[in-house]
Amino acid sequence: MKKSxxxxxxxxxxxxxxxxxxxxxxxxxxxxxxxxxxxNYSGSYSVxxxxxxxxxxxxxxxxxxxxxxxxxxxxxxVIDGQINDGLFVIDMTTITVTDITEKDGKTDLENHLKGLGxxxxxxHFFNTSKFPTSTFKISSTTPExxxxxxxxxLTIKGIENEVHFPAKISISENExxxxxxxxxxxxxxxxxxxxxxxxxxxxKDKFVNDEIELTVKVKATK
Length: 222
Hints:
The protein has two helices and ten strands; from the N terminus they run αββββαββββββ. The chain is of the alpha+beta class.
């Protein structure tokens, strides 16, 4: 009789522990599901212009020049953890040359790129007096491995063209970080024709390459 009671008690204990483990597993699974749900952030994020910048590099037979352009404003619209829409306003009046100093003609080259030099009546390079801003509007972001392909419309000097570039994108509850790979655009597609060998035939080696290399770094917060 004592053995029977002992056996029943042992069976009951094993059953209780089994139920406890199942409940524990269910709770863990539920917690995991909730964590996944919490990463699907939605809302509007405003570009932090203090930390957002575009690096550029231009090429010519005698070498290269590098510089930066800052953003004036912008925003991302996020739905369920994915960028659904976005717009950057690029302040073209902030074009800066970073590879030379004042004694080497830094200000002169910056003014030349902005269209503010001695020949400011000519429509050379970006003509910032007439076109002080450019824009990039995101139409979609498509996952590609550990990055995204960012697709959108870049408007410079009032001319629109499609642009695509790969970027690492990180989205949290209160912040978005977008850092692109370096990519190139053909400036002549936006009417930036100064010293372009594909536009002018008599430049010999006094030309500037049509392609400009860009790297986009954007931070945005709620």
